[in-house]
Amino acid sequence: MPDKKxxxxxxxxxxxxxxxxxxxILEDNFEEDEILIAGILPRGNHxxxxxxxxxxxxxxxxxxxxxxxxxxxxxxLSASIDFEVEECSNKVVILVDDVLxxxxxxxxxxxxxxxxxxxxxxxAVLVDRNHKSFPxxxxxxxxxxxxxxxxxxxxxxxxxxxxxxxxxxx
Length: 170
Known about the structure:
Elements: E1 6-9, H1 11-28, E2 34-40, H2 43-58, E3 62-70, E4 79-81, E5 92-100, H3 104-111, E6 120-128, E7 140-144, E8 153-156, E9 166-169
Parallel strand pairs: 2-3, 2-5, 5-6, 6-7
Antiparallel strand pairs: 1-9, 3-4, 8-9
């Protein structure tokens, strides 16, 4: 029996959610000169790049993309980054992922910045599933879903898939 997929967000709705999140980030950081947008690979980085594109058109500050690759199955923090973590000192960092489920990925993402004095660390996700095992909240969320644990959220982005942007629940 094929998996049944329920469409949660279509391409236009995803763009509307990202636009709103970008405006919330702007409102939260209006007086900054620069913010750093740290995308967690793979899809969090694509969402971070889209947020940066929107912010570049509306914000008076500069924004820069940072990339974080986490070993998500590890029982301890194992991350590869494309920047020197000291560059983040006394700056605003927005940590971005596609889906917040248990909170483990974002918790590991926080770990990258633990030894650096940041001005502010915020989180942004396209979908917040409300099933946290870690004390993680999101500051900017496209949509919050109350689902059962056995359900899965699929985020499809044109950058990596042949399909059009969409968020499905299966």
